[in-house]
Amino acid sequence: MIGSTLNRPLDRRTGTVFRALPLAGVLFAGLQAAGDLTIGPFPDGSTPVGKLAGFYAAHGDHVALGGTLLGLGALCFAVFAAALCARLRGAVPTAVGGLVLLGAAVETMAELQGGSVYQLLGRIGVDPQVTAPALQAWHISGSEFGVTGGIVLLLVGVAAAGIGWRAVPRWLAWTALVLAAALFTPWSFIATLVFLVWTAAAGVALAVRPEPAPMIS
After folding, report:
1. What average pLDDT does the structure give for the chain?
2. Alpha helices in 21-145 (DSSP H)
3. Is residue 174 assigned to a domain?
């Protein structure tokens, strides 16, 4: 009896912590925005190699700091994704939950890699021992990108979980489906920005309602 009484405050605190985990999605969006703003206008992949040295001499510290913020954002995304997968566990078929988990893992690695590239560029961009072609090659990897497969897998999984099994709010599921489709259009870059807003909104929604809505027969 005494042990049960002593465990209640701990259980409440633990429940509060787990309920707040989805809010890491808000931190992810904020850190991504802060990282991009810190890096500032970034030369595209076609920038002549002769101009890159001057850019990094003037902005290398900002690029490295922005990369650090992006890396921290990636860790927050991993926490958000873990909370999302916990929400879906037992509420959807294993294949749907696995799709979300796979997408989350792929996107987390992509976000960590992106942050690491900017950190590296901030350092080697001012290193006289790094040749111009090598710097340009790394610069292209940081300035050009295609469709992020991890985001697509995660969004499709969430859409299926919400539309088919109501494991997440319907509005979250339908917007996930629209975003997943938009990533394959000429407006894919805008879709990736909207994904940040979607993640923040999803984090708040899952924190406010930590359990799936009951199915209506």
Report:
1. 90
2. 24-39, 49-88, 94-124, 132-143
3. yes
Task: Judge if pTM exceeds 0.85.
Answer: yes
CA gap 205, 129 in Å, rounded: 50
pLDDT confidence of 216, banded at 50, 70, 90? very low
Q: Which residue has the higher pLDDT, 213 or 35?
A: 35
Joined tokens for residue 214: 């009951």
* Domain contains 121: yes
Domain residues for the domain of 188 are: 24-208
Contact 19, 210 (CB under 8 A): yes
Give the pLDDT band (50/70/90) at residue 162.
very high
Give domain status of residue 14, yes or no. Answer: no
- The CA distance from 135 to 126, in Å, is 10
What one-letter code names the amino acid at 185? T
- Indicate if the alpha-carbon torsion angle 142, 147, 152, 155 is positive or negative: positive
d(CA 95, CA 35): 34
Q: Which of 105, 111, 11 is nearest to 67 (CA)?
A: 111
The total of structural domains in the chain comes to 1
The pLDDT of 81-96, averaged and rounded, is: 95
In-domain check, residue 213: no
- Per-residue pLDDT at 16: 77
**pLDDT (average), residues 3-28:** 73
| Cα–Cα distance, 150 to 148 (Å, whole number) | 6
Q: How many CA atoms lie within 13 A of 43 on its CB side?
A: 23
